[in-house]
Design brief:
The protein has 299 residues and is α/β, with parallel strands linked by helices. The protein has 14 helices and 9 strands. The chain starts with a strand and ends in a 23-residue tail after the last helix.
Length: 299
């Protein structure tokens, strides 16, 4: 078992901490706002979990550091802080599990390597239920020995760790996966509105989509969110907008525009601008028609 630091205990990070502790690892957890960590420690109630007062406190003595932070800017600011770099022992494996972007991954890889720290760029495919079931897919990139060193820790919540290349390749693959996911989310939203506008109930239409050739795993597991606007948020539209921006920027920078995805971004951006940023991605299906069945309690 390993000594693990987890930086970022939002929905995904908190679920990862629970799985790590259950697997027998000792975990130091830190979050920018302390409330989620305190709640997590109280809920888990294990001597193998402690709340760290700062990122440097969390990583001190850790063999593996996992980050699940909001974006690349935040991740770089936390990991490249002078106190954090001083607290990291040489040879520590730092694994960024977030969707931080290719430029961020490459910058982290260079800076941490120069400090004697091993870095693995390893975004994931899956949401909180996948974490809790231990079925996440990890798209790892970096030195193969570093990836192998991190695998026993990642296996606490991942069904498979795929090594996809050098640092940055993991982020590229995450963007490619999310391109399909977010375009599919927009397509399902349009399909439901098309059916509802012809007096077909949303539930009946969704059942057909599930049983048809488009019934991908995403369509299967997002059924509750598309049918019930009160379903807990799994991924917010604000985060979808961030992902789509990263995808379209990367595509344009490499001379391969993604026109379908550009349109999906425009649709999501309109919903976010209308105040739906904290709503679940499935609520895009309720925006274009003006249907807003549940007010966002956080607005």
């Amino acid at each position: 078992m390993a000594d693990v630091a987890v930086l970022g205990t939002g929905r995904m990070g908190a679920a990862m901490v629970r799985r790590l502790v259950s697997a027998g690892h000792s975990v130091a957890a830190w979050n920018r706002s302390p409330g989620p960590v305190s709640d997590l420690v109280d809920g888990v109630g294990s001597e193998r979990l402690r709340a760290a007062g700062s990122p440097a406190d969390a990583v001190a003595g850790a063999e593996v550091v996992l980050t699940m932070l909001a974006d690349g800017d935040v991740t770089r600011a936390v990991l490249l802080d002078t106190a954090v770099l001083a607290a990291l022992a040489p040879g520590t494996v730092v694994v960024d599990l977030g969707t931080s972007g290719v430029a961020s991954a490459e910058a982290l890889g260079g800076a941490l390597s120069a400090a004697g720290i091993r870095f693995v760029d390893a975004p994931v495919s899956g949401s909180v239920p996948a974490v809790m079931a231990g079925t996440l897919l990890v798209m790892a990139s970096g030195d193969s020995a570093a990836v192998q060193a991190a695998e026993p820790v990642l296996s606490a919540f991942a069904r498979k760790v795929l090594h996809v290349g050098t640092v940055g390749a993991g982020q590229v693959m995450k963007l490619a996966v999310n391109l399909v996911v977010h375009d599919l989310n927009a397509a399902v939203s349009e399909a439901l509105r098309l059916a509802e506008n012809s007096s077909i109930s949303r539930e009946a239409a969704y059942s057909v989509l599930q049983e048809s050739v488009v019934g991908a795993p995403f369509v299967q597991y997002k059924r509750p969110a598309f049918l019930d606007p009160g379903t807990p948020v799994a991924m917010s539209l604000a985060l979808v907008e961030k992902d789509l921006r990263l995808i379209t920027e990367h595509a344009r920078a490499h001379g391969e525009p993604a026109p379908v995805t550009e349109q999906a971004l425009a649709s999501v951006r309109r919903a976010v601008d209308a105040g739906m940023g904290r709503r679940d991605m499935a609520d895009l299906s309720r925006f274009a028609t003006g249907v807003d069945a549940v007010a966002d309690p956080l607005l």
